[in-house]
Amino acid sequence: QVQLVESGGGLVQAGGSLRLSCAASGIIFSIHAMDWYRQAPGNQRELVALITAGSSTNYVDSVKGRFTISRDNAKNTVYLQMNSVKPEDTAVYYCHTRSRGYEHWGQGTQVTVSS
């Protein structure tokens, strides 16, 4: 059974930093690409950042230069370092992966950026 458990969300002031973590179990973590998505109220869920099994990364334009995705295969964990956060970064952030044709999501962690 695949499980993705996010942590690290919370309330932060604009310009501040936050680090999200996602611990994965039930998969061979090192061979899977991992993603972070977010969903703000009234908006569709959007892909924020992804990291391949080979640690190549890609970001949505709105977070480039501010967010960094990374992975620790020894800990089966993927991270999202969020710097210089803005009120528009406020959303529920979800960890995601695909394994054997199935999509797997974490429960989400709320990030709220105050202005």
Structure report:
The protein has 115 residues and is an all-beta fold. It has no helices and 11 strands. The strands form 2 sheets. Strands 2, 4, 5, 6, 9, 10 and 11 form a 7-stranded mixed sheet that branches. A 4-stranded antiparallel sheet has the order 1-3-8-7, with no helix packed on it. A hairpin with a 6-residue loop joins β4 (34-39) and β5 (46-51). The mean pLDDT is 97.
Beta-strand percent range: over 45%
General shape: globular
Radius of gyration: 13 Å
Terminal-residue CA separation: 40 Å
Task: Spell the H/E element sequence.
Answer: EEEEEEEEEEE
Instruction: Give the number of DSSP strands.
Output: 11
**What low-confidence regions span 5 or more consecutive residues with pLDDT below 50?**
none
Helical amount:
under 10%
Features:
single chain; 115 residues; mainly beta; four-stranded antiparallel β-sheet; 11 strands
How would you summarize the topology of this molecule?
Elements: E1 3-7, E2 10-13, E3 18-25, E4 34-39, E5 46-51, E6 57-59, E7 67-72, E8 77-82, E9 91-99, E10 102-105, E11 109-114
Parallel strand pairs: 2-11
Antiparallel strand pairs: 1-3, 3-8, 4-5, 4-9, 5-6, 7-8, 9-10, 9-11
Question: Quick summary of this structure?
Answer:
By secondary structure, the chain is an all-beta fold.
